[in-house]
């Protein structure tokens, strides 16, 4: 790619869209400029363009995204067969183990949920396809980071803001690299209330028919119901069975 091929205006527009989130559904021009590190004039033009195209509304001060923005994410989910293939398996798995089951892919330093079957709400946030979580402290993120070359995983951790969500969250890069090595050796990851107190989860990699890790599967359970030490004993084999069944279908 040549420098002249990069459309900087388009890139700035995408940064503005990404500034909105669950914690920031309404933003002023100043808010967007601060979040994106763009100057106010550029942030204003991007926001007004989004509003003109129907992707945002504004009341004179605050801007909010409109449902039309879902077309951008829906394009990926519609064009990618993986969510459609995985969803029935997650539904069956969730019914079998009586816990929530999910699938996600790695996107930089985060995981993105692509399918989910929920038995009950075990987290304070409402997870659904399109939801994002930090990879370093999520079981599916750990599995996918462990599948990368060690140096690539280290670089992603260096690019991540490693904050402690709970007293259990591992934030030391050296400790995390050791944990990734352990996950790589054993073939699965268990999280003990690192993302949210009261939640344990276990994840396994999802490989395609060539053996390449393309996603991850997990089961989450309330810690009061199933301790971290029990997660592998209860749920590892059902997860592996689903991954094995899916492998020949993922070409």
TrEMBL record:
Keywords: DNA-binding, Transcription, Transcription regulation. Residues 7-67 form the HTH iclR-type domain. GO terms for biological process: 3,4-dihydroxybenzoate metabolic process; negative regulation of DNA-templated transcription; positive regulation of DNA-templated transcription. One of its GO terms (molecular function) is DNA-binding transcription factor activity. Residues 68-251 form the IclR-ED domain. SUPFAM superfamilies: GAF domain-like, Winged helix' DNA-binding domain. The keyword Calcium does not apply. The keyword Transmembrane helix does not apply. InterPro entries: GAF-like_dom_sf, HTH_MetabolicPath_Reg, PcaR_PcaU, Tscrpt_reg_IclR_C, Tscrpt_reg_IclR_N, WH-like_DNA-bd_sf, WH_DNA-bd_sf. NCBIfam families: pcaR_pcaU. This is Transcriptional regulator, IclR family. It comes from Xaviernesmea oryzae. The lineage of its organism: Bacteria, Pseudomonadati, Pseudomonadota, Alphaproteobacteria, Hyphomicrobiales.
């Amino acid at each position: 790619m040549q420098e002249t091929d990069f459309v900087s205006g388009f890139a700035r527009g995408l940064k503005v869209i990404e500034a909105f989130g669950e914690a920031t559904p309404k933003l002023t021009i100043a808010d967007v400029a601060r979040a994106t590190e763009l100057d106010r004039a550029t942030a204003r033009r991007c926001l007004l363009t989004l509003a003109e195209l129907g992707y945002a509304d504004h009341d004179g001060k605050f801007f909010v995204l409109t449902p039309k923005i879902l077309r951008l994410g829906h394009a990926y989910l519609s064009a990618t067969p993986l969510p459609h293939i995985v969803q029935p398996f997650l539904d069956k798995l969730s019914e079998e183990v009586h816990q929530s089951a999910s699938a996600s892919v790695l996107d930089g330093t985060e995981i993105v949920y692509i399918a989910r079957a929920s038995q009950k709400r075990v987290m304070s946030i409402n997870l659904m396809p399109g939801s994002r979580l930090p990879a370093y402290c999520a079981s599916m993120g750990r599995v996918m980071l462990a599948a990368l070359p060690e140096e690539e995983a280290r670089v992603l951790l260096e690019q991540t803001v490693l904050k402690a969500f709970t007293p259990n969250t591992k934030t030391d890069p050296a400790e995390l690299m050791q944990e990734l090595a352990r996950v790589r050796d054993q073939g699965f990851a268990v999280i003990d209330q690192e993302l949210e107190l009261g939640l344990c989860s276990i994840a396994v990699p999802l490989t395609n028919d060539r053996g390449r890790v393309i996603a991850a599967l997990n089961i989450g359970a309330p810690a009061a119901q199933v301790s971290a030490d029990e997660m592998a004993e209860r749920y590892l084999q059902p997860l592996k069975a689903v991954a094995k069944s899916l492998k020949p279908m993922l070409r």
